[in-house]
Amino acid sequence: AKNQGGNRYACYRPTDSQSALQAFQIEKALRQALDQNELQLFLQSQCDQHGVLAGAEALVRWQHPEQGLISPALFIPVAERSDLIIALDNWVLARAGELLANWRSRGLNYTLSVNISPRHVRHASFVEDVKAVLARYQFAPAALVLEVTEGILVDDLQASIDKMLQLTALGISFAIDDFGTGYSSLSYIRNLPVQELKIDQSFIKGIPDQANDIAMVETIIAVARQLNLRVVAEGVETAAQALFCQQQGLWSQGYHIDKPLPVSKWQARWLDRVTA
Ligand code: C2E
Ligand code: CA
Ligand code: CA
Ligand code: CA
């Protein structure tokens, strides 16, 4: 049955041996998917504090021949169990580099954000992988934002910082994704070479009704201001949330603006009408 209901995603919870077997099968199928071009890049817009398009986040999808569109929430955790995630991240990076080069040739300087798994940051090839994409596609380094999570803080933090510094020296930016959901203290971001914080959508959900969520978000904004960081609100679904973001000077991303769209559809909607 092909993707019944249009948007139904399979669910995976690694709770027992059956799930372990399932994970193994997903991993095997995903390796083939990478080879057989079954992965697709989707883009989701990011608007600046004035509500103007500023860039997009690249989000991967798996177009399975029988099961239809499979969510990254299902297969990224499986890919992260092995170095398969590095091949996957590099596939997305290459697609992103290609797109950024194309935009540059059209005089467009939107940012493109790419998710990088903590395992990839720790991997010996990380810095070279990013440099190789930059050398190959010759895009403006300032247009590439690499989204990492607090997962890079475990193990060798100093090694991660050194790698990030090598790439920020080239003009590439880093964002902390899902900010606020980790258990580490706020102070660690002082030591990280990042230019952007992405407030996790769980905090945006309660805006503008939940006092606790407003307090959290305002605290994050205050810290970001001190450190001169850009702040992006994720999961902006309502007009009230979008207004809150604009009033607070945040960039926003979420269903209120658009859902992630296949690259061609995203470009038709957001670019072609201004540059055609
Ligand atoms: P993420 O990086 O936090 O991405 C944001 C997720 O929130 C996306 O789910 C997006 O579709 C969803 N989203 C966007 N706007 C809204 C909204 O207004 N409301 C709600 N409820 N959700 C919204 P998606 O695309 O399923 O991706 C899930 C996760 O998979 C991502 O979370 C990221 O951790 C991972 N992922 C996706 N693409 C890649 C990739 O290319 N490489 C790596 N390493 N991880 C990826
Ligand atoms: Ca992200
Ligand atoms: Ca996120
Ligand atoms: Ca997430």
Mean of residue pLDDT values: 91
Radius of gyration computed on alpha carbons: 19 Å
Q: Categorize the overall geometry.
A: globular
How big a fraction of the residues is strand?
A: 15-25%
Order of helices and strands: HEEEHHEHHEHEEHHEHEEHH
Structural class: alpha/beta
Total E-strand runs: 10
Question: If helices are DSSP runs of H or I spanning 4 or more residues, what is the number of helices?
Answer: 11
In helices, the fraction of residues equals 40-55%
Bound molecules: ligand C2E, calcium ion
Instruction: Describe the largest sheet.
Output: 10 strands, mixed
Low-confidence parts, pLDDT < 50 over ≥5 residues?
1-7
What separation lies between the terminal Cα atoms? 39 Å
Keywords: Kinase, Membrane, Transferase, Transmembrane, Transmembrane helix
GO molecular function, one term: kinase activity
Protein name: Two-component sensor histidine kinase
What does this structure look like?
By secondary structure, the protein is an alpha/beta fold. The protein contains 11 helices and 10 strands. Strands 1, 2, 3, 4, 5, 6, 7, 8, 9 and 10 form a 10-stranded mixed beta sheet that branches. The longest helix has 22 residues. The protein is globular, with a radius of gyration of 19 Å. The N terminus is likely disordered. The site of one calcium ion (CA) has 4 residues, from strand 6.
Strand and helix layout:
Elements: H1 17-35, E1 39-47, E2 53-64, E3 68-70, H2 72-79, H3 84-105, E4 111-115, H4 118-122, H5 126-137, E5 144-148, H6 157-168, E6 173-179, E7 196-199, H7 201-204, H8 211-226, E8 230-233, H9 239-248, E9 251-252, E10 261-262, H10 263-270, H11 272-275
Parallel strand pairs: 2-4, 4-5, 5-6, 6-7, 7-8, 8-9
Antiparallel strand pairs: 1-2, 1-10, 2-3
The protein binds ligand C2E and calcium ion (CA) (3 copies).
One calcium ion binds near residues 57, 115 and 147.
